[in-house]
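If you are new to this repository, start here. Below is one unmodified record pulled from the training split, so you can see the exact layout before writing a loader.
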Amino acid sequence: MAVLRTTFLEKEEEDLVHEESLRCLREIGVMVRSPSVLTMLAKAGADVDSKREVARIPESMVKDALRRAPKRIRYCARDPEHDFEIPARSIPFTATNGLAVHIADLETGVDHSSTREDIARFTRLADALDPVDYCWTSLTATDVPEMSHALHEVWGTFQNTVKHVESISVISAEDARMQVALAALVAGGREELRKRPILSVVSCPTAPLVFNRGPLEAQVEFARAGVPVLSMSMSLGGMTSPVTVAGTLANINAENLASLVIDQVVAPGSPHVYTSDSTPVDMRTGYIDYSATETPFVAAGAMQMARRYGLPCMVAGWGITLGTRIGLAESFSEVTAMALSVLSGTDLSAGMGGMDHAKGGSYEQLVIDAAVWEHFRAFMREVSVTEETIALDVTRQVGHGNTFLKHMHTARNFRKELFFRNPKTLAWEATLSDRMVPEAREVARRLLRDHEVPALDADVRKEGDALIREFEAKLLLA
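And here is the target side for that same chain:
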């Protein structure tokens, strides 16, 4: 099947990024701030400097990790109807934004720090929207103890969607074990969770080339449990990676390969996703710059490296309004930068409902982003190129200089071949404004009123709540 995708690197350039990434790992190495992980890497063949907490990783370890890593991963859901596999055949599977710390009330419009109630409502709205394929833990639970907020986010998300859940906050090994325990409750046991991973997790190294103890030891626990790990490099060109696009790509690649090596050393065969949320830094503000002209270059280059290794990937996002104004406020060139990033061939993306450079969330923006994504994803659908679809026999029947409009071939196939945009959504898109916000607000209100998510079993809910209370009690005694 033919699929529209962007490419960026020539073959010799791709080879060079690969070779320089291996040289980086071999000569510079990565900082690993975990004695236990450093010990495991040393036993597996890395050159470890325990005093400096640096592991230099030889090419042989990278090759072993790539050989062990699965090349297809199934994202499972509470409702198997929402299961999917990556790499995606064409259209990337897309999630909500995360991990925002504030959101505007749907009724009053007053912005406030996000709570567990907001998590429940936002997730339930995402569950109701067909263009949302899976759910990130989208909002931060600011109304609970800080060290247990990730557990409340995972647990609140599981209770309000039947789609796959991806956690994007990992604090420590104990936190990871608790997230696994909650997911196992929903899945029906730890072995069921391993067979049908209804949870995945984003684990971020700190660019450039640092793996901090808490998130890293959490990543190890997830890998051991069979939970898919997304090694999200957040390289900011000019700040945490070289300002050049090529330098940023090499840093992304080195961090992903190092993370993969760690996972495959501690849990051979564990599911792992090549991941990047990297852009140039906005030199005026210091923010990540999703709208930069170079962002699609980075996304397409990272995708090519992931494909080189045969790994599923998440290298681009969809959504995330850069300011605080709900609607379609970005300029044509800014929107084009984000759109071209998604066309890179990424298997996964996220960002729907995000505001304020991902620090905020919005119910109305989630509705708007989902509606626009429904149109945009049509650009990446599969197109059949066969003798039948080339249709020379039809051309012969129509003849020279005549029209295909009246031929039955056109009548039979035009709805399959052509995508018809929703006129109402087109009207929203055309304004580049916030005129559609009141209508989006009504859609959100209606879906939150009418959409029901099947509840978890009462005993499962009770046990999950008890696990979190027990964890918080231990924190108070520590």
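Two things worth knowing about this chain: Residues 67-380 form a domain with the TIM Barrel fold (CATH 3.20.20.480). The first strand starts at residue 30 and ends at 32.
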